[in-house]
Amino acid sequence: MVLMTADEYRKSLQMRGPLKVFFAGEQLTDPLSHPLVQSSINSIALTYALAHQAQYQEIMTATSSLTGNTINRFCHLHQSTKDLEKKVQMLRLLGQRCGTCFQRCVGMDALNAVYLTTYEIDQACKTGYHQRFIDYMKRVEAHDWVIDGCMTDPKGDRSKRPSEQKDPDVYVHVVERHDDGVTIRGAKAHQTGAVNSHEHLLMPTLAMRDAEKKFTICCAVPADAKGITYFYGRQASDLRRLDQSAEGDIDCGNPEYGGQECLVIFEDVFVPHERIFMDGESEFCGRLVESFAAYHRQSYGGCKVGVGDVLIGAAATIAEYNGVQNASHIRDKITEMIHLNETLYACGMACSSCGTVTGAGNYLVDILLANVCKQNVTRFPFEIARLLQDIAGGLFVTCPSAKELQDPETRRLIEKYLVGAEGINTVDRMKILRLIENLTLGRAAVGYLTESMHGAGSPQAQRIMIGRMANLEEKKNFAKSLAKIEEK
Ligand code: SF4
Ligand code: FE
Asked: Is the shortest distance between the CB of 148 and ligand 1 below 6 Å?
């Protein structure tokens, strides 16, 4: 099984053991059949479906560097700058298709970061992590797994280090050692697609110090491992997904696709040696965190751009439905949206094109440019969303419920008074307005806006990296040399 189909992916989730998933005060007896979970599974399923479509195979699949097999690009170790560029193109394509977060990129980014870091640990410490990770990677590729890359710990009191916390469990750490492995405890927050994954790949959340060796653990755990509890995130307008009528679907804005974020608790989960890829080598945490963050900051130059394309399309559509598509200020606003969106894409492509080969043999993006990419992502989607709301007019938040369409008399009134440009169907106008609400205020806004701000690190994290990586001394020398200043 190297390239799963979307159906095989859905079945593979059912083959896992039972998961303990809580949502809105209830433990879900059958999480996979819950409408919220289903919409998020639909998004990931696209990553499998498109890999089987001839016109997308170049982008969606790759040749494994480990086996020579054709594999899904989400399981691939990047072998060239071209591979890095194709990754960005793949994420843009998927964002266009689902208009939300398709959840599978965090794992791809974690796989590449752990691959290069385990090699470097082995070189310095004579450990055997890299071969162990290669063996694991072969399984990932062969099963076409969704990997949930787990980095962010809850962190407790931010003024304190992990070892200084009143309750050390706010950082994942080793609580017990055994002959055949370790037991870990802790939690990972904001876990994208956790319930839809086959495996969790846990990494330390920050550069640990010598005294924090027990927090320096990188390992893989099956999604159905004993001791894991999932709390499904509560998000804006999520209960609209539970309205099962066609009219309720309209109010969803994006009836088919959704994202997923969870709090995942690991309470005394056993991890055998063969699934441990770092254990106490605290001096390498920085490299792992930095390279993972760089890959994921690159990712946003693809996925957010794809969703941005949907926002631009929604802007052009509602302008037409309102009959204002030829107004010069509307055209100018749409041009500005395109400019901002393509700037993000340019950053994603640039950090890919300037990527370099690592000691392990896979390619890493240009870290400075990846941070610039993500820094722009913390701003431009907000401006794109603002322009879309401007163009849409206020009806996207005051529109009556689509349930009013069920009664012929209320339907008649709504169709009469919410009519737009001549020849435009009122219900179609309501549909696009609800999509705009979903993208800029509702569930998809979690991925498009809040995640643009905080995902892959909040804005300040990129500013620190940008400040650190720009060679300021060199720039000073350029200026001094032109001004004929000679250092004494
Ligand atoms: Fe992928 Fe974007 Fe979702 Fe992150 S936010 S998992 S990069 S789609
Ligand atoms: Fe993310």
From this structure: no
Ligand 1 contact, 196 CB (< 6 A): no
Ligand 1 probe mutation, 105, 191, 377, most atoms within 8 A of CB: 105
Give the H or E element holding residue 35: helix 35-49
Q: Which atom of ligand 1 is nearest to the CA of 105?
A: 1
Annotated active-site residue 261? The verdict is: yes
Q: Yes or no: say if 278 and 288 are a contact pair by the CB < 8 Å rule.
A: yes
Per-residue pLDDT of 94-121, as tens digits, reads: 999 999 999 999 999 999 999 999 999 9
Residue 26, phi then psi, degrees to nearest 5 = -130, 145
At 291-313, the pLDDT tens digits run: 999 999 999 999 999 999 999 99
Q: Is it true that 6-284 and 288-478 share their CATH fold? A: no
Residue 81 has pLDDT above 70, yes or no: yes
pLDDT value of position 115: 98
Helix 367-377 and helix 459-469, axial crossing angle in degrees, nearest 10 = 150
Could you report the per-residue pLDDT of 195-206, keeping only the tens digit for each? 999 999 999 999
Ligand nearest to the CA of 447: 1
Q: Report the sign of the C-alpha dihedral through residues 442, 447, 452, 454, in that order.
A: positive
Helix (H, G, I), strand (E, B) or coil at 133: helix
pLDDT average, residue stretch 45-63? 98
Residue nearest ligand 1's atom 2 by CA: 303
Q: Collapsing DSSP states into helix, strand and coil, what is residue 409?
A: helix
- Is position 130 annotated as part of the catalytic site? no
What SS3 state is found at 260? Answer: coil
CATH number for the domain whose boundaries are 288-478: 1.20.140.10
Q: pLDDT, tens digit, for every residue of 329-372?
A: 999 999 999 999 999 999 999 999 999 999 999 999 999 999 99
Which atom of ligand 1 lies at the shortest distance from residue 100's CA? 8
Ordered by start, the domain boundaries in the chain are 6-284, 288-478
For residue 487, report the distance from its CA to the centre of ligand 2, in Å. Answer: 47
Residue 390 burial (CB count, 10 A):
12
Ligand 1 pocket check for 295: Cβ under 6 Å: no
Given the candidates 3.40.50.970, 2.40.110.10, 3.40.50.720, 1.10.10.920, the CATH classification of the domain at 6-284 is 2.40.110.10
Which residue out of 303, 351, 373, 399 is catalytically annotated?
303
